[in-house]
Amino acid sequence: MLLPRRLLKVSLGIALAVGVSEAHSANAPADSAEALHKKECSTCHTAYQAYFLPAASWEKIMAGLNKHFGENAELGAEEQAAITQYLVANAADHGKDKRGARVMSALSGKETPLRLTETPYIIKMHHEVPKKIFVNNPKLKSLSDCGACHPGAANGNYDEHQVKIPGTKNWEKD
Amino acid sequence: MRDTVRSILVLFGLLTVADVCAASVVDDLLAGYQGSGAPLYDAKWAEANWSKKFPAPKDEPGAERSCSTCHTTDLKAKGKHATTGKAIDPLAPSVNKERLTEAKNIEKWFKRNCTWVLGRECTPQEKGGFLQFISSQ
Measured between CB atoms, which of B80, B108, B116 is closest to A71? Predict the structure, then answer.
């Protein structure tokens, strides 16, 4: 009788310990650098995928967060280091995504653009979109909100068949 | 049935715990600001200054700036980022449970947004006022 009871206690203890550790990890997951990048950068604009800019561009951007296109976007030292490392490792010239290679081949020499919307690759990919849709569209405040027209932007899906430009029914015909 | 009752009780308990946590985050921050010297401004002061306009810096010319530029005058409503146009979730904890639950996040945004609106960081007295105003919403 004694042994089973002890066994029961031990197994209960293990079950509790497992339960507690699971509950703990579910409540406070250590954010991966990728999740941290998404969370921090997407508060103000689309968390641009790292493959859109070369590593040197990301290094410059992340070193100047106190003056980030006219705003203070400073992060804690730990978050800044983790996100920089993530962006550099997955940058256009370092990462494995084929779009990175296209971004790089559209750049001449050793340019380090700071604005995605000014990179030759992004300009080329949008050349079919009439300027009037961008310029005089009150619903489009800035091109930095990729998700305004690309519903899958947050997950890196920029499929042109899914594009929906706010305030425009059929942008290809308008 | 008993299980359902139990899950409801547990859920209710968790929600209460979350509320208490949010309250203690705010109280701890206020106590810290208080400890820095001068008495804190109150929620009324913050409300009166919420829409007060400050000129844009000379190197970034543009429209005058205030808290309400992005967060609007209704803290229970969604706001809009002044530059990018991206939606900002409501600040009022009564409609957005995630607000005021993490001290680090609160300080991060005070630093960023005071710098944007005022061109300097807020004092503990000012932060105390705004924190009391936002948490009352």
Answer: B116
Whole-angstrom Cα distance, residue B126 to residue B137? 17
**pLDDT tens per residue across span B9-24:** 555 555 555 555 667 9
Q: Which residues pair with B88 in a beta bridge?
A: B79
- Chain A to chain B, count of Cβ pairs less than 8 Å apart? 40
Contact B122, B114 (CB under 8 A): yes
Are A62 and A68 in contact by the 8 Å Cβ rule? The answer is no
Minimal-distance CA residue of chain A relative to B116? A71
| Nearest one of B133, B62, B125 to B92, comparing CA atoms | B133
User: Closest chain A residue to B58 measured between Cα atoms?
Assistant: A70
pLDDT digits (tens, 9 = 90+) for B86-126: 889 999 999 999 999 999 999 999 999 999 999 999 999 99
The answer to whether A123 and A102 have CB atoms below 8 angstroms apart is: no
In order, the DSSP letters of chain A are: -HHHHHHHHHHHHHHHHHHHHHHHHHHS----HHHHHHHHHTTTS----GGGS-HHHHHHHHHTGGGBTTB-----HHHHHHHHHHHHHTSTTTSS-HHHHHHHHHS-TT---S-GGGSHHHHHHTTTS-HHHHHT-TT---TT-GGGT-TTGGGT---GGG---TT-S-TTT-
Determine the distance in angstroms separating the CA of A3 from the nearest CA of chain B, rounded to an integer: 31
Q: Is the pTM of this model over 0.80?
A: no
**Alpha carbons B99 and B105: distance in angstroms, whole number:** 9
Provide the token pair at B32: 């810290």
What does residue B80 show for φ and ψ, rounded to 5 degrees? -145, 130
In this prediction, residue A17 has a pLDDT band, given cuts at 50, 70 and 90, of very low
